[in-house]
Specification:
This protein is of the alpha/beta class. The protein has 2 domains: about 230 residues, Phosphoenolpyruvate-binding domains (TIM Barrel, Alpha-Beta Barrel); about 45 residues, no CATH class. It is built from 13 helices and 8 strands. The strands form 2 sheets. The chain has a 5-stranded parallel beta sheet. Strands 1-8-7 form a 3-stranded parallel beta sheet, with no helix packed on it. Helix 5 links the parallel strand 3 and strand 4.
Length: about 300
């Protein structure tokens, strides 16, 4: 009922233990707290909180317009709703090293198990768009050192993302990844790899866990879990996928209303009332207070 009974500290320890197994962990992107409950119900390994999704949810493009306050608030709403570890996109850390330090502590207080900070300049842009620019190695490593120094829970995963592959090639990405690990990064997120061989090359070059971003319509092919596990990837994220699915369905629904005058033909594709109430765990609330859920859910899977 209400929120997770697993503490943030336990989630962070659980994530560290899961990464130590060497198995691939799958983190779909949640676009709100309800979708977080669905991710857990489907027995995934963790929840990803995408900066692009937070921006889109606010009706904004992913170009660094969101604030730390907005990201921390959404991270808290999502993280408290699940027993799974959550990993949040902290963009460039929202400023210089002192800002990065505050970002880490705000997100730690929000209950996340980990976060990643990237080496783009401010303002940043989506990692799979052209025209990106990155900071020099000294600035990038200062951000990571500040993040590592600021965390209070040593199990909070500090991941470094590098976008340099798109500008200077794979060798530069590997060199940058090594420098970020030397600065204290617990894991590496090499953005926009061209193919599976590039992921494998990064894997061979560094010893810490590696994340693969399987975002649709991006620069990387949508490799399967088996392919990624085969080259030693540790975490795969699907950052915007659920939002894209939901918005695609919503657009088709609006078109159906416009063309048919009702949504009767679309009802079989909808989540039923009964399934929604199951995800929301009405029964647990009823156990707490019998006046809350003292009614029969109308209909069945066909009509609820």
């Amino acid at each position: 009922m209400l929120y997770s009974n697993t503490t943030p500290a336990e989630k962070r320890a659980n994530l560290r233990a899961a990464l130590a197994t060497g198995e691939l962990l799958r983190f779909p992107g949640a676009f709100n707290p309800l979708s977080t409950k669905l991710i857990q119900d489907k027995k995934f390994d963790g929840v990803y909180i995408s900066g692009a999704v937070i921006a889109a949810d606010l009706g904004l493009p992913d170009i660094g317009l969101t604030t730390l306050t907005e990201v921390a608030a959404r991270a808290r709403q999502i993280s408290r709703m699940t027993d799974l570890p959550s990993l949040v996109d902290a963009d460039t850390g929202f400023g210089e090293p002192m800002n990065v330090a505050r970002t880490v502590q705000e997100l730690e207080d929000a209950g996340v198990a980990g976060l990643h900070i990237e080496d783009q300049i401010n303002p940043k842009r989506c990692g799979h768009l052209d025209g990106k620019a990155v900071v020099d190695s000294e600035t990038a490593t200062k951000r990571i050192r500040a993040a590592v120094d600021a965390r209070r829970d040593p199990n909070l995963l500090i991941m470094a993302r590098t976008d340099i592959r798109a500008l200077d090639g794979l060798d530069a990405a590997i060199d940058r990844a090594k420098a970020l690990v030397d600065a204290g990064a617990d894991a590496i997120f090499p953005e926009a790899m061209a193919d599976l061989a590039e992921f494998e090359a990064v894997r061979k070059a560094i010893d810490v866990p590696i994340l693969a971003n399987m975002t649709e319509f991006g620069k990387s092919e949508l490799f399967t879990s088996q392919q990624l596990a085969g080259v030693g990837i540790n975490i795969v994220i699907y950052p915007v996928s659920l939002l894209r699915l939901a918005m695609g369905a919503a657009e088709r629904g609006l078109d159906t209303i416009d063309s048919e005058g009702s949504l009767q033909s679309a009802v079989p594709d909808m989540q039923t009332r009964a399934r929604l109430y199951e995800l929301l765990d009405y029964e647990a609330y009823n156990t707490f207070d019998t006046s809350v859920f003292n009614f029969q859910v109308p209909g069945t899977s066909e009509g609820a």
